[in-house]
Design brief:
The chain is about 45% helix and about 10% strand. By secondary structure, the protein is of the alpha+beta class. The protein folds into three domains: about 80 residues, no CATH class; about 220 residues, Hypothetical protein af1432 (Orthogonal Bundle); about 90 residues, no CATH class. Strand 5 and strand 6 form a beta hairpin. Bound molecules: fe (ii) ion. Fe (ii) ion binds next to loops.
Length: about 425
Amino acid sequence: MIIRIAVGEARVGMYIDSMECAWIDNPFWRRSFAIKTDAELAKLVASPIAHVSIDTTKGRGVTVIPTAERRRAIDDSGSSGAADAPRAVERRRRRSGPQAGDLTRALDRSKEHVMALFREARLGKAIELGAVTPVVDDISVALQRDPAAFIKVTRLKLNNEYTYLHSIAVCALMVNLAMHLGLPEDEVREIGAAGLLHDIGKVATPLDILDKAGTLGDEEWLVMRRHPRDGHAMLREHADTSQIALDVCLHHHERLDGSGYPEGLKGDAISLHARIAAICDVYDAVTSIRPYKRPWSPHEALARMLEWEGHFDPVLLDAFIANLGIQPLGALVRLNSNRLGIVLDGGEDPAFPLVRTFFDVPDASLRPIEDVDTSRDPILRSERGDYWFPDRWPDILASVQAGETPMPLDPVPIAAAGGR
Ligand SMILES: [Fe+2]
């Protein structure tokens, strides 16, 4: 059960599910954690945070639950006992619902600031670097509440606002991944600023190329590819630009195999920050909903990015996928009902894709395929096809994707008996 309490009610042994504060005010630099010591409790009480939410399934609860909170918790879970997984999913949905207006307002505010930043830069005026940090903070507050929802509202981009919303989305994705990687607070903030500024060089790109709806010609691509160097030159004029922002601006289009631009850097020559930026930049670009092209769904985008060998850092890409909580198209997953299936597209919420089930774990047997709505039968975890079906996985995957029930196995796969 998730219960909102005043910080004064917090006790050692409680599990903090979320804190109502900007990430810069978060003294622990984590969203969720158990309070294990008196020192940690004292740190929380001394912080500017007024309220937190605790998860009583993972730690101790409060002695007396405030009536209003108890009523809400019972209302959410359908009973005061432990909720099963589908109920937990429904609870998450209800919790995130009322925040849609807040998210839109945060996005609009950020967009206004970023548009002003780019407008001034386009007019040749000095870039107001001081204006960047509050925008990063604003985005981070929205992220703290519900990262998936914020990233979702940044997907729709009208033509004339694409660059601004893309900058905000890349900032959000980079902050989210950097926090997931456990990088220090100052570094995360600089990474967020770098995300906002990574495409600032596009203010020097002619608008007819920047806003062109169709495919760019060779000459136009050459012009477009100048923006990392242009942006780097603009930022270098400011003594207070961080090294991270300079590096990300210049190197966010580099690829591990050396096929990127502008410098064709290879492997370790590309910094961690530029590698993070490359993943977040491409993910947002290909999933953006544009008036003139079909966007890739988040599942499809992740599946394709995994296939582009030599493009991204594979370890960071895995961390990015795990942090998004979105399964790539074709990924093997286990559902709450203990069935294995592969992820299909479909459904409005990328956290709850359709899954085509074909294998029953307790019986260790193939079953007729069935497309399952994962908002009703949630995904428990990802699984490895080559572990469950050592030699037959490519054939089984192809059958299931084609909508055919795979032929029975002979004998039953060894791995299926024990699980992992
Ligand atoms: Fe770029």
